[in-house]
Amino acid sequence: MEIKRFSEWITLKEKIHTKERIPRIKEGEVWWLAIGENVGIEINGKSEYFSRPVLVFKKLSYLGFMGIPLSTQKHEGSWYVNFRFQDKNICAALAQARTLSTARLYTRLGQIAEDDMEIIKKGFQKLYL
Asked: Which H or E element spans position 122?
């Protein structure tokens, strides 16, 4: 069984919760985000920041958005959409989409192509609606 780092994550999460500067976001942007140490099949963050690249799928407010975690591992099936971003093969894990606070964001990586965003939206709609 994988050893989880929950106590380290809680310490970082307390710092994130009191963060003063909140970045502005746009739909279609990719950010490094402190996604955390999660449970079961939920995607975990990596490194000391428990981070992972996440797509800003839908901006909900200045403080929150619907995000889709990204991976460089290729996956097949209706839960995933594969696309190219910054000359890399990327996979959007649609089944891991969730509401996130903009306080978790810390580095903007760029904007995905409009065509790819449309493919991701169609995949999301097919999976959830």
From this structure: helix 114-128
Q: Is residue 1 part of a domain?
A: no
pLDDT digits (tens, 9 = 90+) for 13-40: 999 998 888 899 999 999 999 999 888 8
Range of the domain at 46: 6-128
CATH number, domain with residue 88: 2.30.30.110
Q: How far is CA 69 from CA 19, 66, 72, 80, 120, in A?
A: 22, 10, 11, 10, 12
Please, are residues 59 and 28 in contact by the beta-carbon 8 Å criterion? no
Number of domains in the chain: 1
